[in-house]
Amino acid sequence: MQKNIIFVIVDALRADRLESGGYYHNLALNINKIAESGLNFTDCHSTGCPTSVAFPSIWTSTMPLDYGGYANGVYGRPNMLSEELQSHGYQTFGITTGHPSSSQNGYDRGFDTFVDLIDMYQWFRSKYITNFKDDIDSWTSNSISDDDICKKISTSYGSMLVDTIKIISNINKYNVCNKRNNINKLHKALINEQNTLEINTMQIVCKLKQLKSNFSVAIGNPTVTKWIKVKIAYKKVLRFYLNRKIAFISNRKLNSGKVVNNVAKNILRGVNKERPFFMYIHYFDLHEYKFLIPQMSFKRLAHLPGDIFKAYKARGLKGGGFLYDLALINVDRHILELRNNINKNVDISNTLIVLTSDHGTYAGPPFRPKASSFEHLFFDNFTHVPLMINGIGIAAKTSHKLISHLDLAPSILDVSDIPISDNMQGTPVFDCEKGERDYVISESGGSGQCNISKKPFYISIRSKKIRCTYIINNFIPIEREVYDLYSDPDESINLIDTNYFMEWRNRFKSITKRRVKRLHKTSL
Ligand SMILES: [Zn+2]
Fold it and tell me: Which pLDDT tens digit goes with each residue over 188-215?
């Protein structure tokens, strides 16, 4: 039988904060064990940051700006890894905790079971920005009539309500105990909202105009009452005061790794042992490391003093990134729990664990001046991600070869003896050193919607020796940053005004030009 595969994405896990990635302190003992007793890649890079940019490459082995960009997730892209595995006999299960990686962006493709454990705050907010804002603004400025806005909102808001009910019903199916999201109350409110939309669409339009992206607070209420206004104002003041020194509370209400593990346990128990399975698990806890409250539970609270002591003893308070390390200790506990569940429920002798993250984040060193606009998202702490493969048939080894997230899906297919489709741009990481890349590319469409023909976009090329960043305006690349990675691994001195590394820089410039030319052609 083909190997079972457990694919774990720890959102925002920086490679350099693991001992296996060179950190001085081993705070993530269980993740480190996976790295040490498996194949550990120390120089793997994501194709972009944040989540929405990185995910298309992880799943389809195509670049973020290809296929019209990453704004709509994997819609319009070739087969996902999960689809390839499913069509070759795998049972496929997925759990995601981030809205950008949810079924709404097509990431449920190829999954027999896909659970969107997404944060509802982020979900409603993004719906307002992408689906309602433009229409409400046009109506407010009298560009469209009352009839028109009611027709538009009736359709867009109506389908948002249907999608939301679908998502929360799915969450309920897996017995997710999450009182803070208060799923059942929300379900009732959504049904009420559907009635209001049908009877008096203008009431909904007025609510959206008044509350904008906060509209979810009034779901279920036909109008914005005084009490709702007080509630919004109170929360705003509370957040302002509590978050002044340390970010205690977030608007987001993420589902923690504990919730994810409970759903995963239920799924693992029901796996058909006669067939191989692929299980994808996404943890969001580390992404929200600055916020202490959203991840609190009795268990987390009970562990907190011990975790603080452990982090303090290992690394002290100096150096920055203490909260990140604290959150990492907690995530590592989720990994241990997951491994225990795997050991109990499946044939471990035929199972592989693949662990990576989608991108990094700001959290302590290296400290560097913030680069202008989007270039900072290409620094090592944003693109350098861990990649470890552990289990049957994999010998313990550390590999320093330069690889990209593009190589991830082809590697998993390769290890599962499934042919790699021509659309995939990466190569399996197990291929002998002769096929080694000497550079990797990351890119970004800048802020908001990904529209490269109207906005500047960015490309960064990294070798073992140097890294260059380009800004592309009207499809013309301009070099913006050059870093010597050997003598300046923290990327603190921009060599743009020198004539160092001209051979590399000319080569990278022509690679960028070729990439831009291709993007220009497909954008026409
Ligand atoms: Zn992410």
Answer: 999 999 999 999 999 999 999 999 888 9
